[in-house]
Write a structure and sequence with these properties.
binds zinc ion; single chain
Length: 269
Amino acid sequence: MKVIISHDVDHIRPREHWFRDLFFSKLWYRETANLIKRRISILEWTFRCTSFLSKRLNNIPEVIDVDNCSGIPSTFFFGMNQGLNMSYKPQEAKAMIEYVKNHGFSVGVHGISYNDENGIKNERESFEKVTGFEANGIRMHYVRNDENTIPLLEKAGYQFDSSEFDKKKGYTIKNPYKVGEIWEFPVGIMDSYLDSNLETMKSQTLEYIDLANKEGIEYLTILFHDFYYSKAYENYMKWYEWLIAILQEDERYSFISFEDAIREMEKAK
Ligand SMILES: [Zn+2]
């Protein structure tokens, strides 16, 4: 089974949230509740609640280090519009997009518009304006989609989308498939839909990978938010390192990019 690793960049710097959204006030409320319920340590609570003072909220350089060392051709999806607490503007993402590109990784759009033709077109055009090249792929923020999303993305010129996800189950065991000219890569495993307890995260992950093997899945897409690769979210950070290690150790698995997976699937047809 080939594994595609991808990262959604929901946050870049603290200041993009100032006077634009309620991200930090919601975070303080949520994390204090987590502390009271003993779901997180005081140290984690402190790191999370003081993150508004940090220089950056993204952990892209750290994730790139891990992916680089492990030979993972991952893709980073960047927002070109604002909504649902993703509040940076395209220009504010430019430096990080260039950083990702210069390190040899792929970049796509983290979409906001999922059912509005013009909105989808505008986001793709903004990406081209900021980066100087066309986006091949997209994943919707909060994996939002409806029955029109894939045809609209195809019309906008995307080669692939990776927004299908079974929120009820918390995982999706399904091979990539083509709709017209566009490939859909369902998100197999997503960090934020796993339990927050590290041991449970690991057992859920093993269960889903096992299921994918049994179902004969050829390409399994995994989503890890770079935001979580930090001491403030220690379990997520440890989970990602563990995940990469178990996939690397097992010769049944290898890593591939969306683009190379498409090339292989087109060739096999
Ligand atoms: Zn997102």
